[in-house]
Specification:
20 strands; single chain; mainly beta
């Protein structure tokens, strides 16, 4: 497979101000690539994902990047203790804007996801925090939290999606407070279980 940039078993690097478009993966950290900074890159129209952090690549800073119109995922993280901040992930044609799976203790803050099928997704992880993100005009769900424990959603704006926030089959504490959730087509907030909810829902 083709990649714009690959960091393989390589740590404490800086990938800054690159254009990594029109590959299978734009930027790939895999495996065991920790403590890296990926900042201010443009990673558009890749076949699998724009930026991908996988396989024990923990503790990375992913900030200020643009990942638009990738066929699968704008920014995917399957590891732990990463900071994902101030990125832009938009469609059209992109399935997921920012996608976390099987990772713990990640912070996702200040990102913008527009016109994906799913804006922000966390799946099979624990203790991840989503704060001050803007999630709008996503075709299916703005913020999806599924099969996950101890998640905090605070200060996010989720509007003009089919569902604003969709919570399903989670366990542990799911905390949803001080978000702006309004103007979503079917439900602003859907949950199939009790949650702690204190949000501005219109």
């Amino acid at each position: 497979f083709s990649c714009g940039i690959v960091l393989s078993s390589s740590s404490t690097n800086i990938a800054d101000n690159n254009n990594t478009s029109l590959n299978n993966y734009g930027i790939l950290l895999w495996p065991y690539s920790s403590g890296n900074t990926v900042t201010d890159n443009i990673s558009n129209s890749n076949q699998i994902s724009g930026i991908d952090v996988e396989t024990s690549s923990n503790g990375n800073l992913i900030t200020g990047n643009t990942a638009n119109s990738n066929r699968g995922i704008g920014l995917r993280v399957t590891t732990s203790n990463n900071i994902i901040t101030n990125n832009i992930a938009t469609g059209p044609g992109q399935e997921n804007g920012i996608y976390l799976s099987w990772g713990n203790d990640n912070v996702v803050s200040g990102n913008t996801t527009i016109e994906n099928s799913f804006g922000l997704v966390t799946w099979y992880g624990s203790r991840n925090t989503f704060t001050n993100n803007i999630v709008t005009l996503n075709g299916r769900i703005g913020i999806l939290v599924q099969n996950t424990s101890v998640v905090t959603l605070t200060g996010n704006t989720s509007t003009s999606n089919r569902y604003g926030i969709y919570l399903e089959s989670n366990y542990g504490n799911i905390n949803v407070y001080h978000n702006n959730i309004y103007g979503n087509g079917i439900n602003n907030v859907y949950s199939n279980q009790p949650i702690q909810l204190s949000s501005d829902i219109k």
